[in-house]
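Board notes, transcribed. Complex of a protein with iron/sulfur cluster.
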Amino acid sequence: MKGNELKPRIGIFGRRNVGKSSLINYLTGQDIAIVSDTPGSTTDPVRKTMEIGGVGPVVWVDTAGIDDEGSLGVQRIGRSLEALRQSDLAIILFTNNMFGAKEQQVVECCREAHVPFLLLYSQSDKCSAQPGLLAQVEEETGQKPFVFNVFDDSFRTPLLSLIRDSLPESAYRFHSLLGDVLCPGNHVVMVTPIDSSAPEGRMILPQVQVLRDVLDNDAVAHVCKETDLERTLQSLAVPPRLVVTDSQAFALVSSIVPEDMYLTSFSIVLARAKGLFDDYLRGTPTLAHLREGDAVLLLESCTHNVTCEDIGRVKLPKLIQRRAGCQLHFDTVAGFSALPRPLTDYAIVIQCGGCVVSPKQLAARLAPAIDAGVPVSNYGLALAYLNGIFDRAIRIFDNK
Ligand code: SF4
């Protein structure tokens, strides 16, 4: 897992040479971004981490100019706008009393992607902002621009306060995964198969996160392999409130856990915490209606070591194919790579647990599918559906 992917992201946007890199250096007090008078020094998004008081570590994303030129420039603008859609907050810089179509385009993109934004008038030491322009920008965007320059230290504290106040709390506040369905003293059994796809010597992140959450809620966790589940359940004097299993062991675990006991998966717990859960609930039953030649898109939020047991490339396609009983096409795409065919060509999009990405990044990845009316699902919910235990796996969240 890359260290900075769950931290809030603040993207910085604006024309070339408007002072985007200087802003990062100014706020961090370090020369961490390359500053040059030559327009276009930043060609691709560059990420830097910094602590903001009251928020914690955030990732600054320095982007290429929105007025970049040539065919490469157009590609860079595309990457900047992609970075914008994954941002928790966008900072749009402008200067020289110029706020035109380029800036408007970024504002529009923020609105479409539901990304809050701040407008900063930079380089006020070189060119003072005209009050008439600032008023016009405020009227057009609903945002009062903050005027500053990086040669005056007195702007730093109010600017950081403004950024902190504008960053949505959901980007950095931790919400309990199971807090609304557990009470102190409840017992939770976690089933973690140790097979060839399990990393050596450690547990995977969703398992660790659920374990920590159970403990944070003053509940009691029991961890076992699927082969020890029966014995574990029999040994408990108090029946567990909940059994959480790796999705891949759903069928076996479901046959062992009594019907009146709540059962779900790590992947479903995470999917619920990351948002879009209702979209997944609506989209998953599409798996029962796939037809000959339909295309299925499997989205993975990271590139990982692919094994012969790989869920997105091997297990899920096999199960979906078997359920459909006809020939389907499967595309598996990792990270934010381009899709091999237009999104609307897919009958369903199935997203992995997304354990290394923030809710905002996940939403940004799936928004085009949801907006286009393409059904979406999640690995855990799809596996539950294909194993015939969809309703059971979400019951604890219905009855909370
Ligand atoms: S759930 Fe997704 S993000 Fe997490 S390890 Fe698997 S492929 Fe990567």
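Confidence is low (pLDDT under 50) at residues 1-5. The longest strand covers residues 46-52.
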